[in-house]
Amino acid sequence: MCFQISSKVNHRKVVTFEAMNTASIRIKDHNFIMYPSGVLFWEEKSMLLISDVHLGKVSHFRKFGAAVPQKAVQKNFDVMDEAIAYFKPEHLIFMGDLFHSALNQEWNLFEKWTKTIHANIILVVGNHDIISPVKYEDLKIQVVSEIQLEGFLLTHHPEKRDSFFNFCGHVHPSIKMVGLGRQSARLRCFYKSEHQLVLPAFGEFTGSYTLEPIEGCEVFALLGDSVLPVPIKEKKRKGRYSK
Amino acid sequence: MQHLPAIMNREQLYNIAETWFQQQDWKPFTFQKDTWKAFLQGKHGLLNAPTGSGKTYALWFPIVLNYIKGNPDYKIKHKKGLKAIWITPLRALSQEIRQSAERVTADLGTQMTVGVRTGDTTTKDRAKMKKQMPDLLITTPESLQLLLASKGYDKMFKDCSAIVVDEWHELLGTKRGVQMELALSRLKTVSKNLRIWGISATIGNLEQAREVLLGPDSEAMKNSVMIKAKLNKKITVKSIIPKKMETFPWRGHLGLHLLEYVVPIINNSRTTLLFTNTRSQCEIWFQKILEKHPEYAGEIAMHHGSINKETRVWVEQAIRDERLKAVVCTSSLDLGVDFAPVETVVQIGGPKGVARFLQRAGRSGHRPGIESVIYFLPTHAIELIEASALQKAVLENTVEDRLPYLNSFDVLLQYLTTLAVSDGFYPNEIFPEIKQTFCYQAISEDQWQWLLNFLVLGSQSLQTYDEYKKVEVEEDGKFKVNNRGIAMRHRFQIGTIVGDANLAVKYQSGGYIGSIEEFFISKLNRGDVFTFAGRNLEFIRIKEMQVHVKNSKKKTNKVPSWAGGRMTLSAQMSELLRDELYSANQDIDGQSKEIKSLRNLFERQRRESIVPNTNEFLIETFKTRDGCHHIFYPFEGRFVHEAMGSLLGYRISLLSPITFSLAFNDYGFELLSDQEIDIQQVLDNNLFSTDYMSDDLYKSLNATEMARRKFRDIAVISGMVFTGYPNKGIKMKHLQSNSQLLFDVFRDYEPENLLFQQAFRETFEHQLEEGRLRLALERIATQEIVWRPCEKPTPFSFPLITDRMSREKLSSEKLADRIKKMAAILMRK
């Protein structure tokens, strides 16, 4: 199954997101804005990309006897609302793993939430998405395996195909940073290599996987209230202390 | 008509025992006879006796005699059912204990049966046991909990007359000890005739150990005795001092420089045990000895907790049969097992505790009256100071306390779930029981209600859209788990009290080699070779909680690391250590030979800085490419340094935004930063003050990660994080989460949660020894503070600044400000 969005996208006036706390990047002459909560906005298409939300994870744990605070459930919706209010997208693309597991009561919350959303919602299926597409289609959400659009390929798993530039999720990337005085920090990030950009996991109660920076990559770390391009330096061979 | 044998009186019973001793050409010790008597009088108690003293006979005998007393026709008739439980903290010990039990039961002509049930017991044997329990059961604290999780456990334990908790000192001060307290609180009710006995090596707080075992103010405590085996065991400590001190390193933890010094020791003794502090150190030593001395092939072996059971048992038997010249081992051979051929013990690196050191020393000359010899092999120069202090400590028998836990809600939740899984429980019945334990003596009604709510609702009130499911309350008020999945997961979880997720290491063709922590494996790529269980193995893949490997001939320096427990020096030991150090400035004639051998090092130290005197408190500062180092030397032991480092770091961070990386050892602590601290300002502001100490210390916990790490165990024990089960290969991936994530979720949404708060309290009570910190600060207040800005690192500072592993972070800077000074490091691919 493959889905093509017609390019009837009306070219909105160029809005300048002058806020300091986002970062933007140009790929194939398109403009993409990275937002501190880990979502990506495709300006030309008015399309908001959100990956690995893992809704229902908290409820899933609770259902199996692990008492994760239930108050954490609402957070995902609040943070999505905030990003949507900021960009006002016409299309909302979930890049897979929207729901963590089988149907549970968080679906009801999701159902209510979708009614407040005006954008056209599409789900690119991920490995965790085992809920029947019929349920989504009832909510007027299209379920697709991937999206190809003007040389861009949107998938859940990272893919390498022809001359496409790939947007994907699945990895839950984070980056480890080091500084003087043996300081270090690990932060969720957008991770861009030559033909690919991996989105950070959006979900409140999801872990992350530390990626090593490789030659030619660009990394944008999430600091909570801002997105920061990460300087990457070469590793120096550390000499030992001498007596 | 058959003539019924008369019921024997106590004298007749003693005669049976004494006759048996005569037949072996032995004489019972006073402590053994005292224990028999007290037991047969129906008393509870704590027996303080070292391993190898005959302590097993001190308790197996009265247990069997008691059976004989109640069943005069014991030789012809067998009354089935569980009579006694023997708890051992290490499964490795169970075979040994079983043999001594079988010897007594058989020689006395009873038909009693003996069974072992541990994590190694097969499912088949377990099922068999469930049908018919052995008369005498040897098991571990975890396996006992599992019995409490099975239906009808009260009938199983009904006629149990005794429970013996062996090596109680090893359990005390751990959460397994709390597990034991809880199990005992239940058994006291279901087994009407139960005697509770503990066996403990010498520790600082023996009286408290008895109180924890029996319950303070309990009936059992009132009707109990303390019996001490006064065996004057001679222990000789010898330090291995390198001939060439100039080339001996200032840092390090392996001690391989002195490998050749061990060779004559091994050659001159029947069997030698080499104790290492970690499993990786054990692997490395084993490998290096064989590499340098291939002639030992077949004559040396290795023993640690991650090696498979068959190999461990083989090694243990080989030691007994005197087939081995040497065994490199870890704490896995600390306890119990009687190895007569062991003549010499070598301790590699600081043993982190006098009690442990004594216990290890006792592994040699493991017979009453024979001298124990232990060599101390330092891994770096400054450890020689410790070696010298240890000798004094052994002379003066200054052993540490084992601090028992209080209000461990995580263990209590696990226990309550256990009861709910088996027969269910009524809170009104259980609350008074747990109230009687040492751990929960101060639990309030409110806290109890909170825990019950947590079990049933997963929170404190009913919430909409909530599907929380664990324990249900039935109509008559019984708390019960009715969901089979929850019950099964809970049973898996019992016993995974600590530890990273463990993966089973197996050959691709099958064959279990041992278990390894996920942390290590996650860093390997296909084709990487690592050393494990003395073999070089090539990593193939991870599949269903199993690591598949094959043998490799490639050389490697990758050795798995296991997180080992860290011990700290006791107050007395720290004092001995300081005295040793101060002696470096005194007359050479009064110095120990270890201190004399460090002459060179002290000279180097004086060149850059000073060797402090009794009245001096030393602070050194210097810069390296790592940043600005600020080193403080209180010589108070690791835990006090952790507390003092956090306290001082926190107070300094209030002066201006700054970020520290902290390192600690038994001698001092380091505050490393990218900025220089103005030490004069620290002194002017009187930051070593005891004013508001508790308050500041508590706040510093928020700034560091200590509580976060404590939370890990709490989350696992209380059942909020499911770890899966390594050997069963059962995947629960969709239920696995990271305790770090959970910690953040609690911090953001439920900071009032008792389990979340417990993480802070535990850090405070168990890691930061507040009382000792106060005394240390008071001592420092009487000292003159000597601040030495240095050009380069001093010998004293070396072990600290090179510690890369166990660092703590503390920051008062904004995340963004910190991050802006950092970078990611490029990996070329």
From TrEMBL, chain A:
- Please name the GO terms that the record assigns under molecular function: hydrolase activity
- Check the record and name the InterPro entries matching this protein: Calcineurin-like_PHP (IPR004843), Metallo-depent_PP-like (IPR029052), PdeM-like (IPR026336)
Q: Which SUPFAM superfamilies match?
A: Metallo-dependent phosphatases
Which Gene3D superfamilies did the record assign? 3.60.21.10
Domain Calcineurin-like phosphoesterase per the UniProt entry, residue ranges: 48-139
PANTHER family, A to Z: BLR1149 PROTEIN (PTHR39323:SF1)
| NCBIfam families linked to this entry | P_estr_lig_assc (TIGR04123)
- Name of protein: Calcineurin-like phosphoesterase domain-containing protein
UniProtKB/TrEMBL annotation, chain B:
A Pfam family: DEAD
Q: Which family does it belong to?
A: Belongs to the Lhr helicase family. Lhr-Core subfamily.
**Domain (Helicase C-terminal) ranges:** 257-417
Q: Any idea what this protein is called?
A: Uncharacterized protein
Domain Helicase ATP-binding per the UniProt entry, residue ranges: 36-221
Q: Which GO terms describe its molecular function?
A: ATP binding; ATP hydrolysis activity; DNA binding; helicase activity
Kindly give the NCBIfam families that the UniProt entry links to this protein.
Answer: DEXH_lig_assoc
Q: Which GO terms describe its biological process?
A: DNA repair
**Could you tell me the keywords of this UniProt record?**
ATP-binding, DNA damage, DNA repair, DNA-binding, Helicase, Hydrolase, Isomerase, Nucleotide-binding
